[in-house]
Automatic annotation (TrEMBL):
Catalytic activity, EC: 2.1.1.63
SUPFAM superfamilies with a match to the protein in the record: Methylated DNA-protein cysteine methyltransferase domain, Methylated DNA-protein cysteine methyltransferase, C-terminal domain
Cellular localization per UniProt: Cytoplasm
Keywords: Cytoplasm, DNA damage, DNA repair, Methyltransferase, Transferase
Protein's name in the database: Methylated-DNA--protein-cysteine methyltransferase
Catalytic reactions on record: a 4-O-methyl-thymidine in DNA + L-cysteinyl-[protein] = a thymidine in DNA + S-methyl-L-cysteinyl-[protein]; a 6-O-methyl-2'-deoxyguanosine in DNA + L-cysteinyl-[protein] = S-methyl-L-cysteinyl-[protein] + a 2'-deoxyguanosine in DNA
Coiled coil: none
PROSITE patterns: MGMT
Gene3D superfamilies linked: Methylated DNA-protein cysteine methyltransferase domain, Winged helix-like DNA-binding domain superfamily/Winged helix DNA-binding domain
Species the sequence originates in: Sulfitobacter geojensis
Domain of life: Bacteria
Keyword Signal: no
Job description of the protein: Involved in the cellular defense against the biological effects of O6-methylguanine (O6-MeG) and O4-methylthymine (O4-MeT) in DNA. Repairs the methylated nucleobase in DNA by stoichiometrically transferring the methyl group to a cysteine residue in the enzyme. This is a suicide reaction: the enzyme is irreversibly inactivated.
Length: 151
């Protein structure tokens, strides 16, 4: 397992690479500087996202967990930059309860790259499992120009 920490306006984010795929992204208090071609590219893409010159990621990802967790992460990955969906919309698409989608969003192992911050409750803003909680979610949505959706 290799790790690389990237400083961003949303906190220090540590990318985790295992067997040729990004498997996690964590808010870290400890800096890691492992090197690999994949971590170099992932760090480059994350820095470009943070400075506003990239809107999507093109990286090999591997989501650990159940088939359901993987399905929710796939649907979240399809939400475009600057847009949001609700737990209910995703639940309807997958034919499951909205509460289950919320739990899967909270269990997203690769936040920001798999944009769980783009998922809202039926009445608007909800929690966020990343460091800083809902304030970090708001910062990510504002960064993407989705601030008008927070009302």
């Amino acid at each position: 397992m290799l790790k690389r920490t990237v400083e961003t306006p949303f906190g220090d984010l540590t990318l985790v690479e295992e067997d040729g795929a990004i498997t996690a992204l964590d808010w870290s208090r400890v800096a890691h500087q492992d090197r690999s071609a994949l971590l170099d590219e992932a760090a480059k893409q994350l820095e470009a996202y943070a400075n506003g010159t990239r809107e999507s990621f093109d990286l090999p990802l591997r989501v650990a967990g159940s088939r359901f967790q993987q399905d929710v992460c796939r649907v979240m990955s399809e939400i475009p930059f600057g847009y949001t969906r609700t737990y209910g919309e995703i639940a309807k698409e997958l034919g499951v309860p909205a509460q289950s989608v919320g739990q899967a969003c909270g269990g997203n192992p690769i936040p920001v790259i798999i944009p769980c911050h783009r998922v809202m409750g039926a009445k608007g803003l909800t929690g966020f499992s990343g460091r800083g909680g809902v304030e970090t979610k708001v910062a990510l949505l504002r960064h993407e120009g989705a601030a008008g959706l927070l009302i």
